[in-house]
Amino acid sequence: MKRQLNDDATMDGIMRAAPATIRVVLQHKMLCAGCPIASFHTVSEAAREHDLDEDQLRRDLEAAIKRGDAD
């Protein structure tokens, strides 16, 4: 599967480009929406900071991006 999220994409950039990802962020109990650090944290950094499985987070974000494109 081709990665939709590049490694240097920030959480803020992802949420702005694909608002459907905000729901994923909240479901993972992350507070990135509205957080001033979100404009600096990549997916990898956010996953590490919140002690989450990065691969699962990426899959969930990518699925939300794909669903958002279909709307």
TrEMBL record:
Domain of life: Bacteria
InterPro entries: CHP03980_redox-disulphide, ScdA-like_N_sf
Protein name: DUF1858 domain-containing protein
Organism: Mesorhizobium vachelliae
